């Protein structure tokens, strides 16, 4: 036993001396090893989560509808008219299918009806008719992932908040206004925010009323002063950023 202990001690001393002599090289290789270990120990949900639009496995129709709605905000947020110009020809491109015109006027597919809704005229502030999108479905369907990926795909900085955590209407209002009115100042490339409100079905009625007031009340104020004071209206807190709400129970 004594001989074995002496031999093991000699081996450990030899190994320690060799590693200390070659210390500059292993430190450089330590970072990839750490990354590999972290990759091995991370959850599969995080490891294989979609990071681009083409990697999404959720319903393609839902993905396209949400992306189309988000692109309607381009006129206000990015100052581009492309989204509106593209929307008009697409509505006219549907009639010349291999179906008679009478049948098309009577029966419209779900896709055509949704596109007509999404291609409705923008309001006087060049915002889409519907200011908030609601994604609903059972847990694990990919609603939050879809919102984040599409926001990033459309050029936004995704800001997520949990409605069931912020129970106070005052805190809820402050967080919504901060996310929809302030720019992201992290990093060199500033991107406009897209607010994602998770678990909206867990929010109290007072918080829901706060959200509705931000959407509707300020809309009415803008219409009352139509034609004058455009700059003053925008500084008054008019909602100029998209909001995506997520819930399990519609």
UniProtKB/TrEMBL annotation:
Q: Does the keyword ATP-binding apply?
A: yes
What biological-process GO terms show up in the record? DNA replication
Cross-referenced Pfam families? AAA
Is ATP-binding among this UniProt entry's keywords?
A: yes
Q: Name one GO molecular function term.
A: ATP binding
Assigned GO CC terms: nucleus
Q: What is its main location?
A: nucleus
- Reading the lineage from the top rank, the first entry is Eukaryota
The record's subcellular locations are: Nucleus
Which segments constitute the AAA+ ATPase domain? 129-241
Q: Keywords assigned by UniProt?
A: ATP-binding, Cell cycle, DNA replication, DNA-binding, Nucleotide-binding, Nucleus
For region Disordered, the annotated ranges are 87-106
Q: Which family does it belong to?
A: Belongs to the activator 1 small subunits family. CTF18 subfamily.
Q: What is this protein called?
A: CTF18 protein
Phylogenetic classification of the source organism: Eukaryota, Metazoa, Chordata, Craniata, Vertebrata
């Amino acid at each position: 036993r004594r001989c074995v202990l002496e031999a093991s001690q000699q081996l450990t001393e030899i190994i320690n001396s060799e590693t200390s002599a070659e210390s500059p090289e292993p430190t450089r290789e330590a970072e990839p090893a750490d990354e590999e270990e972290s990759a091995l120990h991370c959850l599969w949900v995080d490891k294989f989560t979609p990071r681009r639009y083409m990697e999404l496995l959720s319903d393609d129709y839902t993905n396209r509808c949400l992306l189309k709605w988000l692109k309607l905000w381009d006129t206000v947020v990015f100052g581009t008219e492309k989204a509106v110009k593209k929307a008009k020809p697409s509505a006219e491109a549907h009639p010349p299918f291999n179906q008679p015109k009478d049948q098309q006027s009577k029966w419209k597919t779900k896709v055509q009806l949704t596109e007509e809704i999404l291609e409705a005229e923008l309001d006087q502030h060049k915002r889409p008719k519907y200011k908030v999108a609601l994604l609903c479905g059972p847990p694990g369907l990919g609603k939050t992932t879809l919102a984040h990926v599409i926001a990033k795909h459309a050029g936004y900085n995704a800001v997520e908040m949990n409605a069931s955590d912020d129970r106070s209407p005052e805190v809820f209002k402050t967080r919504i206004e901060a996310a929809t009115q302030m720019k992201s100042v992290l990093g060199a490339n500033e991107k406009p925010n897209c607010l994602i409100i998770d678990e909206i079905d867990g929010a109290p009625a007072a918080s829901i009323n706060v959200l509705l007031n931000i959407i509707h009340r300020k809309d009415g104020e803008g219409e009352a002063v139509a034609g004058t004071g455009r700059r003053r209206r925008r500084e008054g807190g008019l909602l100029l950023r998209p909001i995506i709400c997520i819930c399990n129970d519609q």
